[in-house]
Design goal:
The complex is a heterodimer of chains A (about 500) and B (about 525). Chain A is about 75% helix and about 5% strand. Chain A is mainly α and about 500 residues long. Chain A has a domain of about 220 residues. The chains are: A mainly alpha (about 500), B mainly alpha (about 525).
Chain lengths: ~500, ~525
């Protein structure tokens, strides 16, 4: 019951907020914040009871939901879902504090905004915790609704178009996935009796052609979500239109459902098809890394910049996943976690900058290091985390992905490594434009970070630095799941090739 | 042997740096004192570890410390571990010793700067990262220090980044370094894929049994890393622009320590290069090209700092060349690195002292006759000059001539080509350095009435004087009785190659001096 209770906490908070008058925005905000903190604390306590060396799902619960179809309400945690839920529940309170005024430019009230955020949080927990494929699908699709309203209702610029584009891409992917889910369900009926239980489905014997089709249904849905080149085009629009807080949840958490799904569903259910499509996916990943990085270098809009850097980073994640080595898989999982915080830092700080200048054009800033030093230096650290500077968390994950890829696909790893040069460019060029040089006219009196803003960003920066030096707690949780994933898919790490 | 003290070498300056950054303006009054003390404490600790090491027999000198488990995934197992051996202790003393002198100098040099505290925070960050670079016991730990010094260098080159061209110079340095870092990353991946380990001890153990092609690839990638960090051909162009940083930075980072990290990397990886002759040949080629190229650039610069930067590039070319010459070369590469650390840092501080007295003018065409107005600067600079051109018995004589001899001794056509290149480089060095001295301290004054050249305060000339002592004596001390070669032998195994002398040092020097 633990997971259900924790997952229901935000929903409960949303219901309570529903009883408050919408004019009482401060009360609404405080309630939302309190709910999200309670959820984070509750989950952190649960996570501490997780036994890292025990194989399989923990905190398992299963209740019959639609028995006619063999559908269960079934939840459980393994290393990867634990780390991703932890990331999600930590990010929500940060987003609420950082974006204290974010709901103000919206089409609807602050009350609606926070209700949407909290409903989304419940779904985020559900989507990672579900161990029933149908339940996962329900969360996967239902999440679109709050996000659609958050972008379309509270964003800026052409928010409606961006929201619709996001919705259409996601629905298209969702349909393909649904077809595959029905397919595998039918097969389960023939072999072991109708079920949606992930562990049982993993035991099915499926011929390779069918596997390939079913795999693609899942994979395309996840590749849209992730997003992988060439299915990424919805992301920059959505990121530019959404508020910074929504962007954090969108790129930091929701997109991870895609890469999470590749490990949990694509590889686990269709190991042979995964093998078949690996060369293609490795190629797309490398293209994503380089394409995202090149386009990031040219971005004039700070939100567009972060979106394209994320496309590059997601390329690293999929590369690590399909390298099919423990280093690649653990690296990719840790990368998901680290990317959540590094992107959160960038979006939150970009949000602070945009709020001060009413512009998201990088060239409108300039010389901020001398006007608003704390804002400038924290942005710089967030940037360093994005370019994976050793000593910061993203370095550990990026290097693991690359080294794990090199042992099996050296060419892909070499091409991916070029990403580190491009990363230096896409971070340092905007850093120079926005933070260095003479102070741009109109910026002379911008205020530095307020106490609330500092409180929101400090824990994010602290996690980025702490996990860079000491990633062991995260890796201890992730490693056993990675080993299981790789072994179950029929792979083992390549042995050292030395010897004359 | 293990020691729990090694981590403090790094932790002290790192903590000081963090404190100075976090406290902000509250620490403005005393930040420079804390920063200098942190560096000095690290030096004192390094010196005591060095003397303890001296007391032990050669094979028991190396000391290790495992700090914590860093990254363990499958068979990829890297701990945060440190290694203090004969090679790294030499660097520790150079980094913290010269580093502390430059901290002291900066107290005065930066006294008018509003952001002096931040400057000291970055200097401390640099010291910590550089110490990690030379103390890490695996390539991955080295990598953290490697990029750490790159970050410190970026921050310090761009210390006055309100000027767009300085900000651009900082960015250029970082990106050029990252091209090199690509090499280091790939070298680590090659090591893990072929040998299953990335620690120095592990790679040393496996290297003799690994295919030559894998070691050649790894060596070539390490060389790429070295060219980025050490401003060697073809990644040399950032160093001249890096002179945008305050002059103490140029002395410490872009002359004495960070830019020599490439030489450290190659020497540390001797077990890779000794088993990969093609990679060694590449090292020699890069070194020979850069030593000539740098020297030629040096003849053409009117900006005193850029002339010295070109000279640094050229002198590191010598070190790289030497480190490509196998077991005989490593000790001479490091010896030249140490003597160069003294005389080049001394000359940079001298240049800073001149600028200090000349309203930050860097163009030597507007100097002239300054020896009269700043005698201590002129004398200390002059001693560095005698050291770099290799006049006996100054430091450079011992270290550089050893490299030239070793180059000739490489044998065959190759020996003649690189020997003559090294000799030619020495000739050009004496030419451009004489030019610097003449244009700055001798001749008629070419400055206008706004300049009031004066000698710098004690806090500045004190460090210059101490470095001048090093410029005079370090070569003799290190080379007498083959002391440094013997000292480094357990690390680079250079013992079994007795080298015969083709040319007497004095002959080489007289050749070099006849310009």
């Amino acid at each position: 019951m633990t997971l259900t209770i924790i997952g229901a906490l935000p929903l409960l908070g949303a219901l309570l907020i529903g009883t408050v008058k919408k004019e009482q925005t401060t009360v609404v905000k405080q309630m939302a914040l309190l709910t999200s903190i309670l959820t984070a604390v509750a989950f952190a306590i649960t996570a501490m009871r997780f036994e890292v060396d025990r194989p399989g799902f923990q905190f398992v619960e299963s209740h019959s939901w639609l028995p006619t179809f063999g559908i269960n309400y079934a939840l459980g945690l393994d290393g990867i879902s634990l780390i991703l839920i932890l990331m999600s529940v930590l990010l929500v309170p940060v987003v609420i504090i950082a974006g204290w005024h974010e709901s103000e430019g919206g089409r609807w009230s602050a009350k609606t905004f926070y209700v949407l955020i909290l409903i989304l949080e419940t779904m985020m927990i559900g989507v990672f915790a579900a161990t029933d494929v149908f339940l996962f699908y329900v969360f996967f699709e239902a999440m679109l609704i709050p996000v659609y309203f958050l972008i379309g209702g509270y964003g800026v610029g052409e928010r409606s178009q961006a929201a619709i584009k996001f919705l259409l891409y996601s629905l298209f992917g969702g349909l393909l996935m649904l077809a595959s889910i029905i397919g595998i369900y039918v097969i389960s009926g023939n072999q072991i009796g109708h079920t949606f239980d992930i562990d049982k489905l993993a035991t099915l014997q499926i011929d390779s052609l069918t596997q390939n089709f079913l795999f693609l249904g899942f994979f395309i849905a996840f590749a849209i979500k992730a997003p992988l080149w060439p299915l990424h085009t919805w992301l920059p629009d959505a990121a530019k239109s959404a508020t910074p807080g929504t962007s954090v949840l969108l790129l930091g958490v929701l997109d991870k459902v895609g890469t999470f799904g590749m490990i949990r569903y694509c590889i686990k259910l269709f190991p042979d098809a995964s093998k078949t499509f690996t060369p293609m996916i490795i190629t797309l990943s490398v293209i994503s890394i380089l394409y995202g990085a090149f386009l990031a270098i040219g971005q004039k809009d700070i939100k567009g910049l972060i979106a394209f850097t994320s496309i590059s980073h997601f390329g690293f994640i999929t590369l690590g996943i399909f390298a099919m080595t423990t280093q690649g898989n653990s690296g990719a999982t840790l990368y998901m976690f680290n990317h959540g915080f590094s992107t959160a830092a960038l979006f939150i700080l970009a949000g602070y900058m945009m709020r001060r200048r009413n512009s998201s054009t990088i060239a409108d800033f300039g010389g901020l290091q001398r006007v608003t030093p704390i804002l400038a230096w924290t942005f710089f650290i967030a940037g360093l985390s994005s370019l994976a500077l050793p000593g910061l968390s993203s370095f550990v994950s990026e290097f693991l992905v690359l080294v794990g890829t090199y042992t099996r696909y050296p060419v892909a790893a070499i091409l991916g490594t070029f990403g580190i040069i491009l990363a230096a460019l896409y971070i340092l060029i905007p850093v120079q434009k926005a933070l260095h040089g003479p102070t741009t006219a109109g910026n002379e009196y911008l205020p530095d970070l307020t106490r609330r803003e500092k409180i929101a960003i400090a824990p994010v920066i602290a996690i980025i630095i702490a996990l860079g030096f000491y990633p062991k707690p995260a890796l201890d949780v992730i490693n056993p799941t990675s080993v299981t994933t790789i072994t179950d898919a029929g792979f083992s790490d390549p042995a050292p090739t030395g010897g004359k | 042997m293990t020691s729990s003290l090694l981590v403090y070498l790094i932790a002290i300056p790192l903590a000081s740096s963090a404190l100075l950054m976090l406290l902000g303006r509250k620490a403005d009054k005393w930040g420079h004192v804390l920063g200098t003390l942190a560096s000095a404490t690290s030096f004192a600790l390094g010196a005591s570890l060095f003397f303890q090491m001296l007391g032990r027999p050669a094979e028991e000198r190396a000391v290790t410390q495992k700090i914590f488990e860093w990254i363990h995934v499958g068979s990829f197992q890297v701990d945060a571990g440190l290694l203090l051996d004969q090679l790294s202790v030499s660097f520790v003393l150079l980094i913290t010793g010269v580093g502390t002198l430059i901290h002291i100098y900066s107290i005065a040099y930066m006294s008018h700067d509003h952001d002096r505290r931040r400057f000291f925070a970055f200097l401390n960050l640099f010291i910590a990262a550089m110490l990690l670079l030379v103390l890490g016991d695996s390539y991955l730990n080295l990598y953290v220090g490697w990029e750490g010094v790159g970050l410190a260098s970026y921050l310090l080159i761009g210390f006055w980044n309100q000027k767009p061209e300085y900000a651009t110079a900082a960015k250029k340095a970082f990106v050029a370094n990252r091209v090199g870092d690509l090499g280091l990353s790939l070298a680590i991946m090659i090591a893990f894929t072929t040998m299953g380990t990335v620690t120095f001890a592990g790679v040393k153990e496996h290297a003799p049994h690994v295919s030559t092609s894998a070691l050649t690839a790894m060596g070539a990638m390490l060389l790429l890393a070295a060219t980025g960090k050490s401003a060697q051909f073809p990644l040399q162009s950032w160093l001249g622009d890096a002179m945008a940083g305050p002059t103490p930075v140029s002395a410490l980072i872009h002359a004495a320590t960070m830019v020599t990290a490439g030489v450290y990397l190659i020497t540390r990886s001797n077990f890779v290069f000794d088993n990969a002759p093609t990679a060694q040949l590449l090292v020699i080629i890069v070194g020979a090209i850069t030593l000539l190229f740098g020297a030629l650039i040096g003849t053409a610069k009117d900006d005193i700092k850029k002339a010295l930067a070109a000279s640094t590039m050229s002198q590191i070319g010598y070190m790289i060349l030497a480190s490509g010459l196998g077991p005989v070369g490593y000790a001479f590469a490091i010896m030249h690195l140490l003597t160069h650390g003294f005389f080049k840092a001394g000359m940079f501080l001298g240049a800073g002292s001149v600028m200090h007295g000349m309203n930050d003018e860097v163009n030597m065409r507007r100097y002239g006759g300054l020896g009269k107005y700043m005698p201590i600067t002129a004398i200390t600079f002059g001693l560095g000059y005698l050291a770099i051109i290799g006049v006996p018995p100054f430091a450079g004589f011992y270290s550089k001539d050893k490299i030239i001899e070793t180059a000739f001794n490489a044998g065959g056509t190759r020996g003649w080509i690189i020997g003559i290149a090294a000799l030619l480089g020495a000739l050009i060095t004496s030419f451009y350095m004489t030019r610097v001295i003449m244009m700055t301290f001798v001749g008629n004054k070419r400055w206008n009435e706004h300049a009031h050249p004066h000698e710098s305060p004690f806090l500045m000339w004190g460090p210059m004087a101490l470095l001048a002592v090093g410029s005079v004596a370090s070569g003799f001390i290190l080379s007498s009785g083959n002391r440094f070669v013997t000292w480094l032998e357990p690390v680079v195994n250079s013992g079994h190659h007795e080298h015969e002398e083709l040319l007497q040092p004095a002959v080489v020097t007289s050749l070099a001096l006849q310009q």
